[in-house]
Design brief:
Order of helices and strands: EHHHHHEHHEEEEEEHHHHEHHHEE
Structural class: alpha+beta
Number of strands: 11
Number of helices: 14
Helix content: 40-55%
Length: about 400
């Protein structure tokens, strides 16, 4: 199994307000239901084991696009929303942050007894994945969150995160059972964190001679170290900047939503009635559901769906968020009843944007786009942890 990358996740402290947590859970459930409906339950596990997709999902949910808080907040929202529908979806989410991570073995045993899986084996997988990342890999990060995501087919993914007080950064580790052949030979799909140089990674395949040496009590130092590739480096700055985003991809979505109208596309007739701002969000959500791995190399772009709770790149447009959720829920409900047209229309959104992107030349001023979003935020129920967005102050002209 190959690592898919690494990322620097700045540590952010704070909380997710109830008004956002509720929406994150609803959107998370709609995304999971849509993926299961179109691609199957095992695709959920593959997506969650992709660090770029996971970061993009957090951004489209309205979390701070680059921070460590995405991990615990997104997994908490998914656990609350998905588990009540586990029997239908075939997906079960265990564990969490702190004391909840220690409840994972009991949760796995209970679930396994209900659906006929080997609970002891799954508990072993859970414990070994944590042991590898906390002990076998000595990179200065101590685990504080552990989530085990299981399908009723017996396949699983693990998402866990460690913290380093010394560097004020977090490192996220991703596992996927599908290609796992060993817990001590390159078991991760990805490790996310700041590259601090060479580290001791006894779970790397290249460390096999060292492991054998230890077993033989040989007095030699491990000489095979982890080599990190395909890095996703999440910057320390809180604001979203042009260099954080693929402007061609973002530009084609803004063009589709604000300059073209659904009536111009035969494929989108079923989405008429949606305002341009909701169409912008829905296009980005559609890409999270239907996009291929190469589409998630710039997670910051997905924050242009529903902003961020701290106001970056702009306040969370709660009215747009609710309309996006409602559209997805309606499409899923109709698809379950055999009417798949609306669901297919949402799926085509990302395809249309990608077609437009091929010959698209970005011509919008990036800072102006953000400024416009902030100025209009009050119209869409814009909200942050600090409160509601207000209309921009109009300067009164002086008579004298």
């Amino acid at each position: 199994m190959k690592r898919s990358g690494s990322a620097d996740l700045p540590l952010h402290y704070g909380y997710v307000p109830a008004w956002l947590a509720e929406r994150m859970a609803k959107l998370g459930l709609a995304v999971v239901e849509n993926i299961v409906l179109d691609y199957g339950k095992d695709e959920i596990l593959r997506r969650l084991s992709d660090p770029f997709w996971f970061q993009s999902l957090g951004a489209v949910m309205g979390m701070d696009w680059h921070s460590s808080g995405i991990t615990t907040s997104v997994m908490g929202a998914l656990k609350r929303a998905v588990n009540p529908h586990s029997r239908e979806l075939g997906i079960y989410i265990c564990g969490g942050k702190g004391k909840y991570s220690r409840q994972t073995p009991d949760e796995l045993i209970r679930i396994s007894e209900r659906i006929g899986l080997d609970g002891n084996y799954l508990v072993k997988c859970s414990k070994l994945s944590a042991k590898v990342d906390n002990t076998a890999i000595q990179d200065g990060f101590q685990l504080y969150t552990h989530n085990f995501i299981l399908s009723d087919t017996g396949k699983w993914s693990v998402i866990q995160q460690g913290m380093s007080d010394a560097t004020s950064t977090a490192r996220r580790y991703h596992w996927h059972s599908e290609a796992l052949t060993s817990f001590v030979d390159d078991p991760h799909t990805a490790i996310h964190g700041k590259n601090t140089g060479y580290i001791l990674n006894m779970a790397d395949r290249q460390a096999d001679p060292s492991r054998k040496g230890i077993m033989q009590i040989a007095a030699e130092h491990p000489d095979k170290m982890m080599k990190e590739v395909n890095k996703l480096v999440m910057p320390g700055h809180h604001d979203v900047r042009a260099e954080d985003v693929d402007l061609k991809r973002l530009g084609s979505i803004l063009w589709l939503a604000h300059e073209k109208q659904p009536k111009d596309f035969e494929e989108l007739l079923l989405l008429q009635g949606l305002g341009p701002r909701t169409l912008q969000s829905l296009t980005l959500v559609s890409e999270v559901i239907h996009g291929t791995p190469s589409r998630f190399k710039d997670p910051a772009r997905f924050s242009f769906a529903h902003g961020g709770k701290d106001g970056h790149p702009f306040p969370v447009p709660t009215k747009v968020y609710d309309e996006t959720i409602g559209t997805l829920q309606t499409a899923i409900h109709k698809a379950k009843l055999g009417n798949n047209e609306k669901n297919e229309a949402i799926k085509r959104l990302t395809n249309i944007a990608q077609q437009a992107e091929k010959d698209f030349t970005p011509n919008a001023n990036f800072d102006k786009v953000i400024e416009q979003e902030r100025n209009d935020s009050w119209k869409y129920g814009g909200r942050t942890v600090m409160g509601w967005a207000k209309p921009p102050v109009q300067k009164q002209l002086k008579l004298f």
